[in-house]
Amino acid sequence: MSFQGLQAKYRRLFQESRAWKLLRADNAPQILAFIFDLFIDDSEVPFGHARIALDAELKRCRELGIWETETTAGTYLNQWIRAGWLSEMDDMLRKTDASEVALRFCQSLDQRATGTSASHLRIVQEAVRDFAVAVSPKPDERLTLLEHRKAEIQREIDDLNAGVIIELSEVEQRERIREIYQLASVLTGDFRHVEDEIRELDQMIRVKMIESSTNRGEILSAIMEKEILLSKTDAGSAFDGFFQLLCDVNRSTEFKDQLRSILNQPVAEQLNLAQQQFLGHLIRELERESGRVHDIRRRTEESLRAYIESDAVLESRAVDQLLGQLERLVIEIRESSADYEKQLKHNTGLFLPVGSVRISSPMSMALKLPDDKLDTSGVEEVVNSRSPSDEILSSLEAVQVREVAYRIRDILKQEGPMTIASLASIQPVQSGLEELVACLRVAKSVGATSLPDKEDLEVIDRQGVRLNVSIPRYLLSADLFPEDIEEMVI
User: Fold this and answer.
1) Buried b (16+ CB within 10 A) or exposed e, 133-163
2) I need a surface site. Which of 121, 292, 459, 477 has the fewest CB within 10 A?
3) Angle subtended at Cα 265 by Cα 260 and Cα 267, rounded to the nearest 5 degrees
4) pLDDT tens digits, one per residue of 254-269
5) Could you give the C-alpha distances from 57 to 99, 246, 453, in angstroms and in order?
6) In 3D, which of 17, 37, 202 has the Cα closest to residue 103?
7) 445-461: burial string, b at 16+ Cβ within 10 Å, e else
8) What are the residues facing 475 on neighbouring strands?
9) Angle at CA of residue 399, ends 257 and 469, nearest 5°
10) Among 11-25, 295-309, 349-363, where is mean pLDDT lowest?
């Protein structure tokens, strides 16, 4: 690309890129520092909590003289949402892809990794080797490449059988674990990009529906085409492939166990506490992010469906057409050589079918009379009780899922792997279906192996009623549980 083409490209990015706008904002250091600190522990933060936190930071910055402003915290947050640096849904704030890119750029300036490291070269070599096998159209060539890989693996097996163990040096260990963190830290960027593409798709479809004169069937067909296009984009295809990997219970469990094993090694001390916690909760964070993308997709589809069924698109189109006709009439009046004032009194003949119009002035508004005085002669004062009644306590009784998880893990440590029905034979289910559901939630949370058949067991509710139920068969073992039960997502 020529110099003129490149400068035009960079000028367009300079004007349109939200990440670039954030980096060149007047108070960019303060904004980036606040966004990073706000989401350092959670990916979602309530709007009210963010407003209180920003208000405290603004007060501190005014005292230090580093951010002289009279703008309120709520106004700043709304401005950042409109600028595309934050996103808001259900009164919860999240980072956008633009803020992720800007923060990653700033961190790369301070934590510059060696570009010629052996770890990078190894990753590139493995990616080239795997890709060469995948794209080769010749069976003989594929077999040759796979035979080379097989020979390498066999040599490692022979060395291990002979007692030869090649250990990585401390430098190599430090380099690789830092590389793992760097690669893992950018995984959520794909989710942010998909969220932004879904919102842009929603706006594009609404504009297209207003501007076109198509019927509902054609509109729905256009929505389906856009959904297909979204799945074919880089971010959309990356998300779909990533979600399939997350849905594979065996691979997710294996990945989780391998991360736990790495973090238990001394080399994990090369990462700070925040980085270790990030890798330890990586699977849970990725599952939460993917669930949010699916939720945004579902809400967008429901909103578009309601928009189509409510005929709001037809009303918007009618208003748009009327405004267009008015604009054309104004241009004709300005270009006409006739008397200008006479043309202003010309009847356009345009109307909008909205029913009757009622016009009133504030002087015609009647004040409401005050309500009659409330008769409280028969009301008796009752002092509130400080101790709850038995009815209230019985209604608050519920199964604590984490207590169930502790109990299941203790039994598995003593008895070994078993299914839920086997656990119930040792520790009967005494709280009915609620406790049984808690057992199933624990099994799903730890990634228990799902067996093809089902199993029957008997549960007893709080009233002593016996129920025979049939549930999926899960095989649980104590090594599936984390050391700290509180870390489980139940």
Assistant:
1) beeeeeeeeeeebeeeeeeeeeeeeeeeeee
2) 121
3) 120
4) 777 888 888 888 888 8
5) 19, 38, 57
6) 37
7) bbbbbeeeeebebebbe
8) 449
9) 85
10) 349-363
